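Researcher: Final request for today, and then I'll write up notes for the group meeting. The sequence and the SMILES for nicotinamide-adenine-dinucleotide follow.
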Amino acid sequence: MASDTRMAGRVALITGGGGEIGSAIAARLASAGAAVAVGDLDPAKAEATASAIRAAGGKCSGFALDVGEPSSAEAAVAKTVAAFGSLTTLVNVAAAVTPDGTAVTLALDEWEKALRINLTGAFIMCKYAIPEMTKGNNGAIVNIASQLGHLVAAGRAPYSTSKAALIAFTRVLAMDHAKDGIRANSISPGFILTDRSSKRSGGKDAARLKQGPKHLLNRTGEVEDIAAGALYLASDEARFVTATDLLIDGGYVAFKGTIGNDGRPTF
Ligand SMILES: NC(=O)c1ccc[n+]([C@@H]2O[C@H](COP(=O)([O-])OP(=O)(O)OC[C@H]3O[C@@H](n4cnc5c(N)ncnc54)[C@H](O)[C@@H]3O)[C@@H](O)[C@H]2O)c1
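Model: Predicted protein-nicotinamide-adenine-dinucleotide complex:
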């Protein structure tokens, strides 16, 4: 692997690590020397991420994980420690797919599922991971929030609410666990071109055209943009960074406009 050693000696557990952003983060941390455990609701996706990393010369194991189930979260932490000897870094990426709707039209269980996975899932993971992370006195938590935790979207109540709350939860984690040598930060991505995010627009090509101009940089983001931020926040390069939210959004939140066909912003 490359000579990046920023994560040498670290052991990272990544939830939703079989997904597109999660697998990019896993690969990036592994390429910087971390041993990586990848948990995902879909074990085949977790194992695909892990085997790709191993094929590239990295250390990685993949397994089934449901972040909404305390026993599954506890087992994931135990498997990580059994495989690699410790746990220093937790990256919460997992999120549920939730339908659009309003408070009137959404079913209560649709609302509760989004909150359970996107927000409570991070809480559950922290409950079991932090006691292990505390042992090394050099831990980092990175929670993947969203631009929609800043700018809410009509019809996206469960998602926007869960991500706004995840940003707040991250700050509280930072305050509660600074004494344990743990930093906690979130990342709020803009529109990152993945299958999941592109579905609403009818596929990646359509999403690129529709979503790109909403960003000041006039394009959608790539999974590597988020992986680069996650590596920074997880590593000692961010040793003086805690309780913050890193917008990796091409200027989306600041902009709130559209780039026209002439390349000029309109508001
Ligand atoms: N793609 C974007 O534009 C965008 C923008 C902002 C934020 N995000 C956030 O980034 C993260 C990843 O998004 P993505 O586009 O890569 O989606 P993705 O669907 O590729 O990845 C999500 C992964 O989470 C897993 N997952 C779902 N429920 C789970 C559970 N209960 N336990 C464990 N794993 C579970 C899924 O199986 C999937 O592999 C999400 O938190 C999403 O909200 C994405």
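Model: The mean pLDDT is 96. Residues 11-266 form a domain with the Rossmann fold fold (CATH 3.40.50.720).
Researcher: Thanks, that's everything.
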